[in-house]
Design brief:
mainly alpha, 58 residues
């Protein structure tokens, strides 16, 4: 098991993959991120945020 992890880390740290835009760590993180986060539209978050703001102000 440890050898597999070592191989993976070596592969990830290889300069070819690091410089390759398709395998950039940011892209890997975004693809590994849970999909349900994208399902929440930004407008609903904004609406909830502003409703709480108006409630506190009043």
């Amino acid at each position: 098991m440890a050898s597999v992890l070592e191989q993976r880390s070596k592969r990830r740290d290889s300069p070819v993959l690091r410089d390759h835009p398709r395998f950039s760590p940011r892209k890997i993180k975004s693809t590994m991120a849970p999909k349900h986060r994208k399902a929440i539209p930004f407008q609903t978050i904004k609406a909830i945020f502003f409703s709480t703001l108006t409630e506190r102000a009043s």
